[in-house]
Amino acid sequence: MAVKLSKTITLCQEGDRFASNGTYKEALKSYISSWNSIPDEKLKDPLAKVILIQIYASYEKLGQIEEGIRSLQRAKTALHGDTDSRINFLLGKYFLDTEHNQAEAYSYFKIAWDASEGRAFLKEDTNYTSFLLRYSPK
Fold this sequence. Notes:
The protein is mainly α and 138 residues long. 70% of the residues lie in helices and 0% in strands.
């Protein structure tokens, strides 16, 4: 198991290096390889959320947002993913900016806000915080 974990981490770090150099296609390949190196019951692995968020980020940079969203939705089903502030913030952002679905965006933003006590919004565009604070769910 330690060998598999080492390979998973090494591939993820390789993806991080590619991403920091702006080579997102190579980053994506490394992150997908990292994901594939996780043994059975991938979504129970503590690294699952991290890797799936990185896969999302790579797809987003490559302009393939729909593929990325599928990764985030899968990450939401991972260990503690349902309350993960980053996953929920990114899903909220997608539903607000791309789908223009305010109710759906609000539900994800609310989870992100509550889970992080607002910290998930600190480095983000203030329009997202404003939306969350002024939106009135029906």
